[in-house]
Amino acid sequence: MEDQQSEPGSVTDPAAESNDDVESTAEVTDVELDDDTDVEGDVKGEAESDTDETDDDAADDDAADDEAPEGDAEAVAGKRAGRRKLSLRFAVGAAAALFIASAAFAGAAAQPYLLDRAEVATKLDIARTAGRAIHTLWNYTPENMDTLPDRAAVYLSGDLEAQYRKFIDAIADSNKQAKVTDSTEIVGAAVESLDGPEATVLIYTNTSATSELSPGIPQIKYLTYRLYMKRDQNRWVVTRMPVITSLDLTPRLQS
Asked: Which segments cross the bilayer (predicted)?
């Protein structure tokens, strides 16, 4: 329940007051007005006195300690040591507060920097994985083509892995007979986009293929792939890899 202030006149009735009380009040008022005491000066003096006393507390304590009897030397030394300890505690507390504030500011300022570094590290991981995938898929000899699908499966998703395995099975026999060796060099890689667990990467390659059917005349191509990748648990895998640039640089013999 809230406290309610009484209305003026609710406790006493002005009409019921006696004339004597009114005169008495007037007399008291006259006495206070006729007093020659400088009220303003007293108030100022009291305020200045309080200020001086506050400013001189430490000096008075030291003076009192110096005037103490010799018998109380140990007590005086104890009091001074206590004051020093108190001052030291204040200093340590202020230093600790400043350190905490500085650490909080440094943490807030470092957070965007750490996020940027984490994103850069993720992009590097994606680009390196994409480069290793292309290098594995398009580097083979007649001797290791049989194991190529299994080695490439580490970098491919289910559907793409099945498609690649089917492609290699279709060309394996003819490439073995012609002794085809395919060599692919990664000349550039760039993460095109990164959106949570999905990313696209551009891989730039120089590819050359040699065969005993055409000795001394390699087939040279400049190819650019766009790899669509996704995060599968703790690794990145390729889901699609269309060729977006194909430039045939194979030398042409003039008849």
From this structure: 88-110
Q: Alpha-carbon distance 53 to 48, whole Å?
A: 9
Question: What is the number of alpha carbons within 13 Å of residue 70 lying toward its C-beta?
Answer: 0
- Residue 188's CB: how many other CB atoms inside 10 A? 11
Residue 52's region, left for phi above 0, alpha for psi from -120 to 50, else beta, is alpha
Task: Supply the pTM of this predicted model.
Answer: 0.57
pLDDT single digits (tens) 125-145: 999 999 999 999 999 999 999
In this predicted model, what pLDDT tens digit does every residue of 160-183 receive, in sequence order? Answer: 999 999 999 999 999 999 999 999
Element (H, E) at 231: strand 219-232
Secondary structure tally for the chain: helices H, strands E: 6, 5
**Beta-carbon contacts of residue 244 (< 8 Å; ≥ 6 apart):** 202, 224, 225, 226
pLDDT tens digits along 76-87? 455 555 556 556
CB 186 within 8 A of CB 111: no
DSSP run (H or E) holding 205 = strand 198-210
CA-only gyration radius of the chain, Å: 47
